[in-house]
Design a protein that fits this description.
The protein has about 375 residues and is α/β, with parallel strands linked by helices. It is built from 15 helices and 14 strands. The strands form three sheets. Strands 6-5-4-7-8-11-12-13-14 form a nine-stranded mixed β-sheet. A three-stranded parallel β-sheet has the order 1-2-3. A two-stranded antiparallel ribbon has the order 9-10. The radius of gyration is 28 Å and the shape is globular.
């Protein structure tokens, strides 16, 4: 190796300058070590998130003694307990998590620990379970809840009931057709699988009611759908068995699929009675809807739906009959797709018409509350 004069071992002035101006990597390393412990812990929490494997946390402890002390001394970093880990890693995480709430995850397709060993290991800490997500290995014939949850945790039902007894609502979330989450209070059941069928959704709900109490059926239900594709029969089944009060729809552009199976068709389903004798509407208790407007004509679909439901409510009132529908309390909309502007003013005419049709409901566009002429004057 050839050294310049300033870099040679005998040149103390060159060494001094090198120490005063460390290489970029050295400077960055020195800077992070100057962070207060609270900020460094925040960096770790952002890095780890909520689903960090044990091996990644162990790598952090190997950087230096200070990092080891912070990571090993922060139980909340170790709260993700997953069947994707080997049994020694699961035991390590449980030991380090101490008494913090635990996020329990068992994805059968990618599990490295056998079901029986996994549930045996975590059963003694059920009082700390904040959530339980169970993935199915094969959903062709067996319900994920009846086949996996019941044999493993049925003797812990009292503890699970305690996790749900303060629940104010039940949330059903779908990330596509094969990934569903059911949230009741502090208890979460997730089901996922390539062959997940509608019957498994029904069986999961039946399992919740049968094991945790029929009173859960009376809870208001919030439905959150991300790119969902199910037939209209499932929506009508949910409407007949649960009190849906909030609906979130997050969709991509319209496709050429059969409209009877297009989940975006739910707006049309909401626009008219499902049956006339007796009159029956989809989600009669619906008070809040939150969705993105995919196309310009999507605005007219939403406006027609709101007009139809509120016109029916007015007609019921004029006839002095109890209304079968609740009026909307809030309508939240977003743009940004297919030239639908995200700007509020660009949608002013539509928002004014929607506000008139909704008769008192709060109207929001991109998290901005629409106040009609007041908003225009403010601009």
């Amino acid at each position: 190796m050839n050294l310049t004069k300033e870099e040679s071992p005998g040149n103390s002035s060159g060494m001094a300058r090198a120490a005063a101006h460390p290489a970029p990597s050295q400077a960055a390393s020195a800077t992070i070590h100057l962070l207060p412990q609270e900020l460094l812990l925040l960096v770790f929490e952002i890095y780890t998130g909520t689903k960090t494997p044990v091996r990644n946390l162990v790598l952090l402890t190997l950087v230096c003694k200070r990092w080891w002390h912070i990571v090993e001394g922060t139980p909340s970093l170790w709260c993700w307990i997953s069947g994707e880990e080997a049994l020694p890693s699961i035991r390590k995480a449980l030991a380090m998590a101490k008494d913090v709430p635990l996020e329990i995850n068992y994805p059968a397709n990618n599990a490295k620990t056998e079901q029986e060993a996994f549930f045996a290991e975590i059963s003694g800490r059920i009082a700390q379970w904040r959530s339980l997500v169970v993935g199915t290995e094969n959903a062709d014939s067996a319900s994920p809840t009846s086949e996996l949850l019941t044999p493993r945790i049925s003797h812990h039902i009292p503890a699970l009931k305690a996790m749900t007894n303060q629940a104010q609502e039940m949330e059903i979330t779908s990330f596509g057709d094969n990934d569903w989450t059911f949230t009741v209070g502090k208890f979460v059941i997730g089901t996922e699988g390539d062959a997940l069928q509608r019957k498994h959704l029904d069986e999961t709900l039946e399992w919740l009611f049968a094991h945790l109490g029929e009173h859960l059926k009376a809870l208001p239900v919030s439905l959150v759908f991300f790119e969902l594709d199910v037939d209209s029969e499932w929506f009508t089944w949910v409407a007949s068995t649960h009190k849906v009060t909030k609906l979130e729809l997050w969709t991509g552009p319209f496709s050429s699929r059969d409209p009877d199976r297009d989940h975006r068709n739910i707006i049309s389903l909401l626009s008219q009675p499902l049956a006339s004798a007796p009159t029956k509407w989809l989600f009669p208790e619906l008070e809040s809807i939150d969705t993105n407007v995919v196309h310009e004509y999507g605005k007219s679909k939403i406006l027609e739906m709101v007009k139809a439901r509120h016109s029916f409510i007015e007609a019921q009132r004029e006839d002095a009959r109890d209304s079968l529908l609740k009026p909307f309390r809030e309508i939240r909309l977003r743009g940004g797709r297919n030239n639908v502007s995200k700007e509020v003013l660009a949608n002013a005419e539509f928002l004014n018409d929607l506000q008139k049709a909704a008769k008192g409901a709060e109207i929001w566009w991109e998290d901005v509350k629409w106040t009609g002429t007041e908003y225009l004057r403010a601009e």
